[in-house]
Specification:
The protein is an alpha+beta fold. The chain is built from nine helices and 18 strands. The strands form four sheets. Strands 1, 2, 3, 4, 5, 7, 15, 17 and 18 form a nine-stranded mixed sheet that branches. It has a four-stranded antiparallel sheet with strand order 6-16-8-14. It has a three-stranded antiparallel sheet with strand order 10-9-13. Helix 2 runs antiparallel to helix 3 and helix 2 crosses helix 5. The chain is globular, with a radius of gyration of 20 Å. The structure holds 2-oxoglutaric acid (AKG) and fe (ii) ion. The site of 2-oxoglutaric acid has 11 residues, from strand 7, strand 16 and strand 17.
């Protein structure tokens, strides 16, 4: 019988080098790439668009056949997270990549071999899910630069720096992990994904500031991209929340520097100090085709440097997915027990927009 690899022993079985930016990295070999590609092809027999439940289950079943090094790295990351906040798998199969679409809500990437690769990896980490109406509410989303959004704080921006954030900080149901699989880099190689580990940023702050971040003295607004079609006139403000929880050794964050603010002057100064500290210890990861970056959405902020959108079909293109360890926590927001969370934003609006 084959020996079962327990999480405690996993770290000894994986050869991990430091990635381009001090992020833990696993280089996938050519043989391993072929195994993953074969599994992704098998998964391709189920539609990720119309048969989501069966698709995710199939990905989880097939995941048992992934190469040990890949599986062990993902299981280890799932178990403990990583103080560096990210895991980079380099050299994954993505198949033929068509021209980058000009819109992000057409669900093009969902049907590509890369989506199969991403979902196989996600199935080892936990449960894949999506949010309505963000990027058509699919479980695999296209992250690419879109005309008219260049200077926004949406993930489809380009010219603007995408500020450091925890993904969907407004939502209790937010992902434990965000998976970003690169299909195409930007032509100029200017775009870099940013990672800033919580413990490093916190180490730069005065103890009184860290204590304050643990108090429920903050509010956070819902990203505009989630409110499209909701009919709500103004910002949806959620709170009061604490930005920091967890232990000193394993801090947990809930903050998006484009959306989160203090409800009084001292609390706001703490947000500004944290932002400055997080910026100061940012790591840049220039994703290459076949790179999967898994971000721990609790122990690190992520963001992206500015780059140029050309609209020539060669623009940067990532596939993104959200993974939770516990899908049951969002059951009230998932109609019919599916995998797409549909939040009632009106109910979420717990704070008068005049406060703060
Ligand atoms: O484009 C990137 O590298 C990261 C974008 C991002 O933060 C996201 O899609 O959640
Ligand atoms: Fe993000």
């Amino acid at each position: 019988m084959q020996e079962i690899i327990l999480p405690e022993t996993v770290r000894h079985t994986v050869a991990m080098g430091d990635g381009p930016a001090g992020v833990q990295m696993v280089q996938v070999s050519r043989e391993e790439r072929e195994v993953v590609a074969d599994l992704a092809t098998q998964l391709g027999g189920v539609s990720a668009g119309t048969d989501v439940q069966r698709y995710v289950l199939q990905a989880q079943m097939l995941g048992a056949g992934l190469p040990d090094s890949v599986r062990a790295a993902l299981l280890h990351f799932r178990h403990d997270g990583d103080r560096r906040g990210g895991l980079l798998l380099r050299g994954l199969p993505i198949g033929d990549v068509p021209p980058t679409p000009s819109e992000a809500d057409l669900g093009v990437g969902l049907h590509l071999p890369g989506a199969g690769t991403l979902s196989l990896m996600a199935g080892v980490l936990g449960e894949q899910f999506g949010f309505l109406p963000e990027l058509s509410g699919q479980i695999v989303q296209d992250i690419l630069p879109v005309k008219g959004f260049e200077d926004t704080q949406h993930s489809i921006s380009s010219r603007a720096l995408l500020e450091l954030h925890c993904e969907t900080a407004f939502a209790e149901e937010r992902a434990d992990f965000v998976g970003l699989l690169c299909l195409r880099s930007d032509t100029d190689h200017e775009a870099a994904t940013l990672i800033s580990p919580a413990h490093e940023a916190l180490a730069r702050l005065a103890p009184a500031t860290v204590d304050l971040l643990r108090e429920p003295r903050f509010v956070t607004t819902v990203d505009g991209s989630f409110l499209r079609g909701s009919g709500l006139p103004g910002p949806v403000v959620v709170g009061p929340i604490s930005i920091l929880s967890g232990s000193e050794e394993h801090p947990r964050l809930r903050c998006d520097f484009a959306e989160t603010r203090g409800i009084d002057a001292r609390a706001q100064r703490a947000v500004v100090a944290l932002h400055k500290a997080a910026d100061a210890c940012v790591q840049k990861v220039g994703l290459l085709p076949g790179d999967l970056l898994v971000v721990d959405n609790h122990s690190a902020f992520h963001g992206r440097t500015p780059f140029v959108r050309r609209g020539d079909g060669r623009d940067r293109w990532l596939l993104r997915t959200f993974v939770t360890r516990d899908l049951a926590k969002s059951i009230a927001s998932r109609a019919g027990g599916g995998r797409i969370v549909d939040i009632d934003y009106q109910k979420l609006n717990t704070v008068s927009s005049h406060s703060g």
